[in-house]
Every structure is written in C-alpha cells, then in structure tokens.
Amino acid sequence: MRQGTEADSKNLAHNLHLLSKSMAYDMKFDRQYSSGDDSFGSSYRTKKKFPNANKRFVCMECGKSFVQKQHLISHTRTHTGERPYQCKECGKTFSQTVHLKNHQTTHTQLKPFSCSECGKCFAQNIHLKNHLSTHTGEKPYGCNLCGKTFAQNVHLKNHLSTHTGEKPFRCTECGKTFSQNIHLKNHLSTHTHEKPYGCTECGRTFAQNIHLKNHLATHTGEKPYGCQECGKHFARSGQLKEHMKLHLGLKPFTCVECGKKFSQNIHMKNHLATHASQKKPKE
C-alpha cells in the first residue's frame, strides 16, 4: 500500500512539474509579446529549443500536452470514459463528434469509397485503407517486443496487451476484465442475452456481428480465409487459426486420461470418446 502511495506521489509531482513548466512558458511568452521586444524571434528560438513549448495544455492524468484546449478536453475522455455524443438512430454513444459522424454512415448505407483492386465499397476512407492491405500483404506496424507485424495500427495496439497483461476494461455486471474494449462489448451480450444481428437469408439472430458474418458463409459458400502455407481456404477465421496449428506443430490440447496431445480441441474430444467406450462394462 505504501509503494502505491509513493508511486502516486511521484506521478502527482511529475504532473505538477509539467504544469508549472507550461505556465512558466505562458508567462514568459506573454511578457515578451506585450513588451514588443523581439517577440517573433524570441518565440521562434524558444520553439527551436523546446519543441513542445507551444503545447500549453497538459493532462493531469498522464502528462500528455496539447496545442489546443479542445484537444485536451477530447483526450481526457480516454481517462474518464465519457461519451457525450449520441447517435439518434441507434443510441450508440461516442467520445468525439468525428467518431459519431463516421458511425452515422452505417445507417445511410452510403459507401462512396471503392477498392480499385476488387471493387468492394466502404462507408469510410479509413476502412478502405485498411482493406487495401489484404491485397498488398503489407504489414508496416511491428511489435518492438516480439517482432510480430500487423497491417493495421489498431491490431498492433491490441496485440501489445498480450505482453503487458493489462486488462483495463471491466464488466460492471460480473467484474470480469478484458484487454480490449471489443472483447468487453462481446461479453456484455452474455448478460443481456441480446441478439441484434439478424441474417437476412434465414432470420437467425446472433449476439455478435462476427458470428453473423461466419454464419453468412453457410449461405454463400464463400471461404475468404486462406492458408498461406498450403492454400487451403476456410469460411471462418477461427477455422484457419485451428488449421495453422498443424503447420506450426502446436498441440495445446492434452488428454487427461493418457496425456496424448492434439492440435485441435475437437480431435481431443473425439479421442476422449475412445476412453469412455473402454470404461463401459461389457455385457
């Protein structure tokens, strides 16, 4: 408990130092500007010597600084979890207006951004950019800890939690914690029992959008997930992940009866049935 108190004190002292440094710069800048004494040259030299000197608005939680006060206000919502902007169509809330505007395109069904490679259309330009990496195979975002690379920055950020073990997203119903917000959202459906994602072909409903997408493959026969090792294709990403264990030689599933290992859980379950049949008394 004492260590936590000392750490909190150090963080507070650090934040106060940043704030006082920012305020000192403001006062110095104001004096130079009001006196008219080489205000432009002095300001320029200050910015060269202190490149962050023009970032006067400092977050008291993490010490990050911003040029504009509005940027600081938007940033603080990452700490408070505040989402003041609500979609009138579905009630979903957002921390920033730009996120709300991007979300609203999902209701209009407008998809003005099309891929020149395959013709697939997207509601937002960022989604098109992310999609293009599936054609180029480019993975520019690399993990400094293990070297694993990703096509999208958000995937790298999600991956980093596997190294830190941090799980900042907590379920208010049962207290379970998650490393990613999307995992928490998916988990919440187990409490509400809501299934908002419906199949237009057969009417079946699902709690998560990914489950609906996987289900749609049963109607279309599409198998978009291809193995780069052998070229085999699968309808679901989970099936591809299970298949990759064969190439990697991973066998994480162990039989509690005999210790035999398997690459897939379904294979272990099938194997367990052989033990169950052996235990049945002969008539």
How would you explain this protein's 3D organization?
The protein has 283 residues and is mainly α. The chain has a domain at 197-279: 2-Layer Sandwich (Double Stranded RNA Binding Domain). 51% of the residues lie in helices and 11% in strands. It has 10 helices and 16 strands. The strands form 8 sheets. It has a two-stranded antiparallel sheet. A two-stranded antiparallel ribbon has the order 3-4. A hairpin with a 6-residue loop joins strand 9 (169-170) and strand 10 (177-178). Helix 1 (2-35) packs antiparallel against helix 2. The protein starts with a helix and ends with a helix.
CATH architecture of the domain at 197-279: 2-Layer Sandwich
- Helix and strand element order: HHEEHEEHEEHEEHEEHEEHEEHEEH
What is the CA-atom radius of gyration, in angstroms? Answer: 27 Å
**How many strands appear in the DSSP assignment?**
16
CATH superfamily of the domain at 197-279: Classic Zinc Finger
DSSP helical segment count: 10
Helix content: 40-55%
Separation of the first and last Cα atoms: 65 Å
Beta-strand portion reads: 5-15%
Largest sheet: 2 strands, antiparallel
- What's the CATH topology name of the domain at 197-279? Double Stranded RNA Binding Domain
Shape: globular
CATH top level of the domain at 197-279?
Alpha Beta
Look at the helices and sheets and give the structural class: mainly alpha
Low-pLDDT runs: 18-50
Mean pLDDT: 76
How is the largest sheet built, in terms of strand order? Answer: 1-2
